[in-house]
Write a structure and sequence with these properties.
With 240 residues, the chain is mainly alpha-helical. It folds into 2 domains: 81 residues, Orthogonal Bundle (Arc Repressor Mutant, subunit A), CATH 1.10.10; 151 residues, GntR ligand-binding domain-like (Four Helix Bundle (Hemerythrin (Met), subunit A), Up-down Bundle), CATH 1.20.120. 75% of the residues lie in helices and 4% in strands. The chain has a 3-stranded antiparallel beta sheet with strand order 1-3-2. The longest helix has 36 residues. The N and C termini lie far apart (57 Å). The relative contact order is 0.10.
Length: 240
Amino acid sequence: MTDALAILSHGVQTRKKAASLSNQTYDELKRLIFEFQLLPGEMLFENQLSDALKVSRTPLRQAMQRLEHEGFLVSRPKIGWQVAQLDFEVLDELYDFRILTESHAIEVLCKSERARDLLQNLCDIWLVPESARRKDPIEVGQLDEEFHAALLKAAGNREMAKTHFEITQRIRIIRRLDFTKASRIHETYREHGTILTAILGSRKSEAIRLLKAHIEQSKIEVRKITLSMLFDAKENKLRA
């Protein structure tokens, strides 16, 4: 290998290693935020985080900039970073946008002759006997996200699906909490099943009504759980 190629190869490997560290740091910071170990409004400082996470400043800053872009952190120039406050008014608006986009997807699917083929994978997951249902909250949370994203994908509007994905990222911090209760997992299976059945029966109005009720109930539940968890987390911080 020539000197030039050796230098190029070394540079590629270095960038890959830096990207990997940045991704790992991003995942860890996001987990700490999602679990309210880093509280909304809390100030973060790069030197302290660098020591705590055992990572250099460059991948740390890359990870934090990514979280800032997604709305989880706010940069405070010459001071540090701050965990974004939970703005329930904004979150409500994002949930409302979900209803609009997913209702449009249902309208398209109810007119499609290929709806059953397009939604077969969802039927295989959600229209199953109770004994075959998943029970792990994290897994069900992921499947729930995929259910709603799949409606947009099946409807075929790529730009709408892209925006829907971005919204999903922004509300994930609270949405995932909907599955910390066994009763909510049960209700999610039931509600997804009735939505799918209505779509496959081309009952547009019924399917949209069921979808709206499903999303609105989820919004109410996660708000209650979030406020409870925030209170507990703050109390634990004070006692620590």
